[in-house]
Amino acid sequence: MLKILRGVAALATAATAVVAMSGAAQAKPAEGDWNGCPYGAVCIWGQDRNPYLDPHPTNVYWSYGAHNLSNQYGDHYVFNNQYGGAGMSLCTGYNGVGCHVALEVQEIGSFNLTPYNSLTLNR
């Protein structure tokens, strides 16, 4: 019986280690470049591309204000790698019209970009 309990304890420890390692693999640094997205920028990866596996964003935006999107359809990962409280918004209209906040600083998300025609980088 003691041998079985030791086996169960070892299995539980191994499972906990696997969960801990998988969470660490997806962690982003608090500051600095992350998987091809420069610190201070907002990045978009290609349709159905996973930034955890593909460190090459297709779009990188640096300046505050509106940026029109073109040919961005379907699901894309977007990462706000800005700092100092700068958020980013997705907008249904061109030139930053009809926006809603999508990501705060250091947040990543997957969005269907089909209905969006622009994004803004907000101070």
Would you write up a description of this structure?
It is built from one helix and eight strands, in the order αββββββββ. Mean pLDDT is 82; it is low at 4-27. A hairpin with a 7-residue loop joins β5 and β6. It has a four-stranded antiparallel β-sheet with strand order 2-1-4-7, with no helix packed on it. The protein has a four-stranded antiparallel β-sheet with strand order 3-8-5-6, with no helix packed on it. It has one helix spanning 2-25; strands spanning 42-44, 59-61, 65-68, 75-80, 88-91, 99-103, 108-112, 118-121. It is of the alpha+beta class.
Features:
four-stranded antiparallel sheet, alpha+beta, 1 helix, 123 residues, single chain, globular
Strand arrangement within the widest β-sheet reads 2-1-4-7
Largest sheet: 4 strands, antiparallel
Series of H and E elements: HEEEEEEEE
Class computed from helices, strands and strand pairing:
alpha+beta
User: In which range does the helix fraction lie?
Assistant: 10-25%
Radius of gyration: 19 Å
Report how far apart the termini are. Answer: 62 Å
Q: What is the count of β-strands?
A: 8
Are there runs of 5+ residues with pLDDT below 50, and where?
A: 4-27
| Inertia-based shape | globular
User: Roughly what fraction of the amino acids lie in strands?
Assistant: 25-35%
Q: What does the average pLDDT come to?
A: 82
**Helical element count?**
1
